[in-house]
Amino acid sequence: MSIARVSVNRPVTILMIFVALVLLGFISWSKLPQELFPPITYPMITVVTSYENAAPEEIESLITKIIEEAVGTVNNVKRISSISKEGLSLVMAEFNWGTNMDFAALNVREKIDLIKDRLPRESQEPVVMKYNPFDLPIMNLVVTGPLSSYELRRICRKYIKDAIEKVEGVASVTISGGEEREIVIEIDQARLRASQVSIVSVVDTLKSANLNYPAGTIKESFYEYLIRTIGEYQKISEIKETPTALDIPEEEAKNIKEKEKKEKKGLRLVYIKDIAEVKDTIKEKTSISRYNTQDSISLVIKKQSGTNTLNVVKRVRKEIQKLLSEKLPKGINIEVTYDQSQFIKEAISNVRDATIQGGILAFLVLLFFLRELRSSIVITIAIPVSIMATFFLMYLLKININMMSLGGLALGVGMLVDNSIVVIENIFRHRQMQKPLSKACIEGTQEMIGAIIGSTLTTIAVFLPFAFVIGVAGQIFKQLSLTITFSLLTSIIVAISLVPVLVSWQLRGKLSTVDTSPKKEIRL
């Protein structure tokens, strides 16, 4: 039994199926992530390792070469390049196109874990980063107020940054500009030599003293108390009173007994204040932020991958209004200097308007040539039904709504009605042969199935190969080709199933009006 025969004989079932597709399309439209560009995964992983105050030669020999040897054993690695500069090692591993970068990143981390013991202890742990050229921030905020740059940055870090990072969909918030507090310990070299204390021991003493240690528990009948030894510095005076070493007398004893006697008499503690000067200063500026000729604090917001940019921006704006009204001091203003959602809204609205205008123009062209309103409406129905079904397929294949995917829909709008026009014209041709209504709809549709499938596949054959192109161009045009393919395939289904049902109902209405008219019988 053919699709056309089932559609004409079971019209209610066919209509319910397409109503369900339209509803699923609307639901998919609301849940699809809306972006400016399609997500692009570039097959490159960067390993960043920091080693402060180390020369480029040391970075290369102690870190870069070791990481290169480890990363080179990962599967599908195409090329490895590195940059060694003062205090920083960058190792870039480029993979073959089509490699799953999530698994590749895991493999790189596993290889680096095996060689961590060979790296210098003073160096930081290597950080594995995936490269995305379109990983742009979604919002830039500027915070201004009557406070100093230091206080303004402290408020941004304590209140604004923490609050925005808790918003659903936000990945990170980066602060730039303003001033930061810095405690500087300037060691007097002459005093250090006189005390015979090494600089390494001073650094180790400061590290070990500025810590909190657990000290066990105390149990009572109903309670258990955790005890901690508080050692972190709270004041500048505490740093000055930190003992670093014992001061050895300048006169050296000739034998051990004399040395022990002098040590008992002459040993004393050497404090930080004896060999250094502790200053509470401002850290050297590495970034400057100004807005309308005033010093300000900039916050760059990035979203999590796969989330809807428009929804994330709405939540962030709502959180900003909440902060201004409840937590922040009076006089502080938060301005949005960059909002990616505005570009997305404009791009989507422009493409949407182009799609709607294309549908209206297609209806007017059909009305002009067919010269019948009902047939034009039946054919035009294929446009929204095919688009809604395409949205559902996009949701299943995780295709975002962006300029490329909507551009594919806009290109396919003019071709969605071609199959329906062919089917409806052939049905009317069979009706002119005085065939019954259902037979005309079934036979007229069946005759055109091969023709419309062949003509549609020729168009699909032009756009579908873009989905298999390797490289950045393939990832950009993949969604465009898939949306055109989906829309054309759904137009075939609409033409051979929904259009015969609507045409049969339309002609049945015409026939019923003709049959109910009074007839006169003439006898000779």
Description:
By secondary structure, this protein is α+β, with helices and mostly antiparallel strands. The protein contains 18 helices and 16 strands. It has helices at residues 3-9, 11-31, 56-71, 101-114, 149-165, 189-194, 199-209, 236-240, 256-266, 272-275, 309-326, 340-370, 373-380, 382-396, 403-416, 418-432, 437-463, 472-515, and strands at residues 44-50, 77-85, 88-95, 127-130, 139-144, 170-176, 181-187, 213-219, 224-229, 243-247, 268-271, 276-282, 290-291, 294-295, 297-303, 333-339. A four-stranded antiparallel β-sheet has the order 2-3-1-4. A four-stranded antiparallel β-sheet has the order 6-15-5-16. Strand 8 (213-219) and strand 9 form a beta hairpin. Helix 1 crosses helix 17, helix 14 (382-396) packs antiparallel against helix 18 and helix 16 runs antiparallel to helix 17. The longest helix is centred in the C-terminal third of the chain and has 44 residues, at 472-515. It is elongated. Mean pLDDT is 81; it is low at 248-254 and 511-524.
What's a quick, concise take on this entry?
With 524 residues, the protein is α+β, with helices and mostly antiparallel strands. It contains 18 helices and 16 strands. The strands form 6 sheets. The protein has a 4-stranded antiparallel sheet.
